[in-house]
């Protein structure tokens, strides 16, 4: 193994390849060309500074619209109107009734437009604002606040109706999730802030959510309820949580200062594009992609994330590389239809986060295992939980199809910068991870021992290459006992980060 690596200064490089949206590597014969993609089309400042700048709606009711005065019974007006009606809410604070279940139930095609300063205020009385299964509802230029949805429920589009468009809205200071999502929902140019659990909870109990677009939003200050401390390990907090979403574009958002993870895809999500976002100052990871499939994570700027969780791990003596992008039991799967058959992470700029990217696969977590925290849920390849049992699971195809695999992950043309003094870190930050645990559980598991450790590290097509590092980075491979320098990481048997540049002193 080599003990040192090339020391190449790469500041100020441009990326015509990534700007053009390419996914291929740069010229492998030219180190400077290969690093050009690392400074990508990632944003350098807030891409969606929306909060307190949401444009005002029309000062008068549009032609044909039903006017709703602040003294009107808003819910009754909607109930009494035909479908596909446009409602204009006059300036001022609108209220529903005094029962916690008073709510607005749109009909198909209804449109709700707020006038300048129009607010729908739940007064900490009403649980929900807009509910029901109506399709193609549109809400614009309206502030929705102070509703008290229970945990895991949402205030706007509570029942995950299809085809909703929410644009130029402010959804703030609610309990639960500010917003739920349905099929082909568009969430555009909104302020989702200070909600008790999530800015948005993309979950439907009925079927996959497909065709979801989340673009140009500011998502900030969510999880004011600090639910992870109330329910240890609940995995139920953050800016946005996605569950069983099959096709999502998450583009050009400013995701910042959330108490928890910024963007979290969890359990059988597939076909994600996470592109051009600024993700910064979130307490936990910037992005978690967990027990899911096929994604492109590109051209994002990712700054000062995971500092709270990272310090918590360090303070309790846990050396696991808690990550800024955490890929957990997720990867590319050609048999699951998507725009890509890989999980590709490229063209991103990382600056002063607590650790970098960790690829993890829990050897004990698979369909029908008691260690599967997504209890009762099986994989997209084998949806029948009962089939994933001994002795059949020990043989193909169930041996492969009953577990979510961290495979076909391609980490390339990213730039990782770390100055430990800037984040108050002494030794446990600045790490990449490619590892698993030693399989032990349950007793009928066919994945015991180092089977998964060897697979994730050497057999499942997980690669780093053409990246650029500034600062004191280390690498953990196979298991927690293998902490490597860049030369060992590049050398046999790991053979990672070909054509990568490394400036260890650049981190200060």
Automatic annotation (TrEMBL):
Organism field: Amycolatopsis rhabdoformis
Keywords of the record: Signal
Classification via PROSITE patterns: PROKAR_LIPOPROTEIN
Gene3D superfamilies: Single-stranded right-handed beta-helix, Pectin lyase-like
Signal sequence coordinates: 1-20
Residues covered by the Right handed beta helix domain: 158-327
Identification of the protein by name: Right-handed parallel beta-helix repeat-containing protein
Record bears the keyword Signal: yes
């Amino acid at each position: 193994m080599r003990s040192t690596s090339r020391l190449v200064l790469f500041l100020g490089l441009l990326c015509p390849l990534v700007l053009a949206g390419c996914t291929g590597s740069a010229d492998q014969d030219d180190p400077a060309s290969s690093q050009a993609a690392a400074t990508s089309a990632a944003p350098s400042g807030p891409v969606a500074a929306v909060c307190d700048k949401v444009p005002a709606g029309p000062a008068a009711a549009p032609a044909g619209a039903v006017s709703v005065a602040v003294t009107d019974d808003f819910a009754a007006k909607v109930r009494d109107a035909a479908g596909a009606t446009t409602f204009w809410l006059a300036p001022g604070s609108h209220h529903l009734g005094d029962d916690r279940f008073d709510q607005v139930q749109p009909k198909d095609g209804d449109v709700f437009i707020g006038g300048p300063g129009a607010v729908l205020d739940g007064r900490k009385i009403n649980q929900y604002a807009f509910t029901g299964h109506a399709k193609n509802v549109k809400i614009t230029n309206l502030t929705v606040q102070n509703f008290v949805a229970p945990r895991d429920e949402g205030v706007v589009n509570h029942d995950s109706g299809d085809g909703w468009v929410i644009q130029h809205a402010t959804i703030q200071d609610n309990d639960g999730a500010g917003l739920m999502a349905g099929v082909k929902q568009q969430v555009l140019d909104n302020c989702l802030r200070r909600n008790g659990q999530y800015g948005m909870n993309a979950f439907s109990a009925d079927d996959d959510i497909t065709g979801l677009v989340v673009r140009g939003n500011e998502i900030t200050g969510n999880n004011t309820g600090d639910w992870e401390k109330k329910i240890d390990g609940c995995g139920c907090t953050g800016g946005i949580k996605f569950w069983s979403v099959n096709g999502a574009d998450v583009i050009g958002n400013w995701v910042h200062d959330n108490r928890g993870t910024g963007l979290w895809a969890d359990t059988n999500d597939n076909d994600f594009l996470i592109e051009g976002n600024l993700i910064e100052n979130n307490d936990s990871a910037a992005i978690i992609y967990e027990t899911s499939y096929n994604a492109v994570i590109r051209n994002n700027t990712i700054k000062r994330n995971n500092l709270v969780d990272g310090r918590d791990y360090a303070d309790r003596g846990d050396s696991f590389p808690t990550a800024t992008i955490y890929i957990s039991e997720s990867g590319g799967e050609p048999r699951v239809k998507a725009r890509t058959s890989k999980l590709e992470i490229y063209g991103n700029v990382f600056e002063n986060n607590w650790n970098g990217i960790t690829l993890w696969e829990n050897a004990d977590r698979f369909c029908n295992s008691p260690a599967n925290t997504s209890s009762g849920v099986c994989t997209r390849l084998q949806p029948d939980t009962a089939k994933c049992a001994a002795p059949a699971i020990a043989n193909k195809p169930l041996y492969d199809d009953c577990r979510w695999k961290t495979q076909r992950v391609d980490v390339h043309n990213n730039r990782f910068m770390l100055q430990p003094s800037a984040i108050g870190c002494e030794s446990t930050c600045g790490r990449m991870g490619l590892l698993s645990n030693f399989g032990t559980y349950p007793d009928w598991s066919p994945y015991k021992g180092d089977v998964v450790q060897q697979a994730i590290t050497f057999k499942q097509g997980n690669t780093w290459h053409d990246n650029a590092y500034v600062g004191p980075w280390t690498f953990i491979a196979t298991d927690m006992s293998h902490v490597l320098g860049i030369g060992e990481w590049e050398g046999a048997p790991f053979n990672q980060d070909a054509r990568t540049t490394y400036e260890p002193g650049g981190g200060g």
